[in-house]
Amino acid sequence: MGEGSCSDYTGIIPVLNEAETLPIVLTELVENGIPRDRVLIVDGNSSDGSREIAESRGFRVILQEGKGKAMAVKTGVENAGSECIVFMDGDYTYPARHIHDLLKQLENGYDLVIGSRVYLEKGSQSTLFKLGNKAFSLFFRVLFGVKLSDVLSGMYPARRKLLREVGFELTGFSVEAEIVAHAASTGFRVTEVPIGYRRRVGRKKLGVRHGFKIALNIVRLTWRYSPVFFILALGALMLIPGLYLDMFVLYRWLFYGVVHHVRALAGITLSGLGALWSILAVLTLYFKRFEIRVLRALRDLEKKVGSEAWQASRGNVAINRNSY
Ligand SMILES: Nc1nc2c(ncn2[C@@H]2O[C@H](COP(=O)(O)OP(=O)(O)OP(=O)(O)O)[C@@H](O)[C@H]2O)c(=O)[nH]1
Ligand SMILES: [Mg+2]
């Protein structure tokens, strides 16, 4: 692997009414060696003076298109001029000291590096959120075969090439999940690095409502990235009433000598179809993962050719055409 340095990067911070925390976030960035001109604040039309706070400290602020964090991320990607982009929230929950370590992994050939929130400050994450995050992680493991522990993290560097391919169609707080789903399902290299996470200052914006939205978005992502699996998995649900009927018929026959012909037929049909659908669903998963492996190999090859051609154009190495 290896695809060029990230010395030129943009730090994108989506901000909506973060006047309380933005000053310490910006100070922390500078203290950690992040130059002001590498940071792009994407404002969601804040009414608390967040925009003015950032501008008065010499940071570049742009107004997002549309509404919601996903659209803010999209606006940021469209306005970032660099190949490497790193995202961070403006609520002082993500320590800026991790930025350089995360970017290093991009330089090591990854396309997306998730800052996995492992070192949690007490009270920084609710149980509901942890459950939702676990559900997403399981979803990514089953569907795409990637082992990630914090797909909803708001601190992650990524290559612009990947981000430009994302549709940004999921509204709400699942923009990160959409980026990870696109990366994992189309052969981009994804990894994670453990980071710290602080308790939010001020009122938490995530609630039970967002929990439902996250669940709905898992369904939408499955439909989008693996529709055949989705249909077959739904069909596999026939196994539950089918097995119930089978057990009932068997029980009545064994203990009471009563034979339920119609229920037996229905039970066998449902459980048979359900079993068949389950097998087909597992097979589609297998083929999906195979497709991902092929795409990943192609992307790796593309990077290798690209970086060698780039080096050759600088006169450093000659392209060895026999090496593929
Ligand atoms: N531009 C823009 N930024 C947003 C919008 N919604 C949230 N943000 C910012 O996105 C970042 C993450 O939002 P949070 O509200 O902290 O979301 P969260 O971290 O998932 O939830 P909490 O647990 O409440 O912190 C923060 O910097 C917000 O200010 C929006 O609609 N537009
Ligand atoms: Mg937050």
UniProtKB/TrEMBL annotation:
| Full protein name | Glycosyl transferase family 2
GO MF entries: transferase activity
Does Protein biosynthesis show up as a keyword for this record?
no
Q: Please verify whether the record's keywords include Transmembrane helix.
A: yes
Membrane-crossing ranges are 223-244, 264-287
Q: Which InterPro entries match?
A: Glyco_trans_2-like, Glycosyltransferase_2, Nucleotide-diphossugar_trans
Q: Which PANTHER family match?
A: RFBJ PROTEIN (PTHR48090:SF7), UNDECAPRENYL-PHOSPHATE 4-DEOXY-4-FORMAMIDO-L-ARABINOSE TRANSFERASE-RELATED (PTHR48090)
Gene3D superfamilies noted in UniProt: Spore Coat Polysaccharide Biosynthesis Protein SpsA, Chain A
Keywords per UniProt: Membrane, Transferase, Transmembrane, Transmembrane helix
Task: Determine the domain of life of the protein's source.
Answer: Archaea
Pfam families, sorted: Glycos_transf_2 (PF00535)
Which source organism? Thermosphaera aggregans (strain DSM 11486 / M11TL)
**What residue stretches are annotated with the Glycosyltransferase 2-like domain?**
12-163
